[in-house]
Amino acid sequence: MNDMTAGARERATFSDMKESTQEDWEKIGSCFREFAKGHPDRILEHLKLLDGDFGGFQVDRLTHCLQTATFAHRDGKDEEYVVCALLHDIGDTLGTFNHADIAAAILEPFVSEENHWMVKHHAIFQGYYFFHHLGMDRNLREQYRDHPNYERTLEFVSKYDSPAFDPEGETLPLEFFEPMVQRVMAKPKRSLYKNISE
């Protein structure tokens, strides 16, 4: 039974949430849990949209994400961190003007607060290397100098994100990272709907 079939079979009876019943929400909860199982697969499919999108860079956006994750993995970072590295630019397709926020929102239920903050702020930290070429303030990241995750995010952009535009750089295939994504995103750690998924 696919997601659509499950959704068609079990439907609530209300047209206004104020009229909903326990039975309605049992049906909705059942569909929610079934649909949630496919969440990691949908994330991976969306990530593949970056394939072939160069945006003026030497490598396409998917290669950049894979290379960033490869560098983090080769440097001994844990699986959650590597998944954050892999997905840090997944927002490029839908969040042209706020891609880091999109990636952070997707990852937030599944990762630590430190990793979430790192992904959410990586664009500002990365900007140190190019904002001045665009007439912007390259030192925007300095507003976070005293934040506990400043050094973590600085390391991420300087060691993994910034050098990951190399056509000759080691780039492990997406298939290598897929099991990591499946494990990290299998069950939320923090979410308003955490109990529904259990």
From TrEMBL:
InterPro entries to which the protein is assigned, alphabetical: HD_domain, OP_Dioxygenase
Domain named HD: residues: 61-135
SUPFAM superfamilies attached to this UniProt entry: HD-domain/PDEase-like (SSF109604)
Name by which UniProt lists this protein: Phosphohydrolase
Organism taxonomic ancestry: Bacteria, Pseudomonadati, Pseudomonadota, Gammaproteobacteria, Pseudomonadales
